[in-house]
Amino acid sequence: MSRRPNSGHVQLWLALGLALAVADTAATEPDAPPGSITFVAENTFSTAHGSFRSWRVVRAQIDPATPREGSVEVEVDVASLDTGIQRRDEHLRTADFFDVAKFPKATARVHDAEPNGMSERGNPRYRAKFDLTIHGVSKTVDGEFEVTKSSPPTVEGGLTLNRVDFAVGGPYTWYVPGSIAEEVPVRFRATLPSAH
Q: Which numeric CATH code is attached to 18-191?
């Protein structure tokens, strides 16, 4: 018997907002990422809210006129995770979970964006492929995003990943109170550079 999470959000923001380029703020804050990656992980008794404080866009080829032909690659410093509880963060960095000593980086490549109607807010919406490498494991998952602002381009979206597919922690066990839900919805947001 498996438990489906009520709502997990791992805004590992390894996504299209991420996924389309470097934010204009990078010019004034060279060390600041062009957006945010936040996450929520749940077990029976608690919910952990956190973020990744260090990540960057390493490659972006985007033409708004032909989104399917574009791609963006993002690199995340996994050790930069922050849930607000130092002891928990240190445990998440160990071989029990992310094993940052062995796998310090996670990557995402977003590609094959296709129009997918309009969002509830009336914004253009797209679906896309997300090639993720986490904990040394590579998988492709489906995701989506919407363009919330055209100038400067701003996107928000999400995807759902299964942490066990990436060997992050063990399988969910319903009779173990601290066991973490396997499916993790991911949300992301980013401001992108204007097209030239």
A: 2.40.128.110
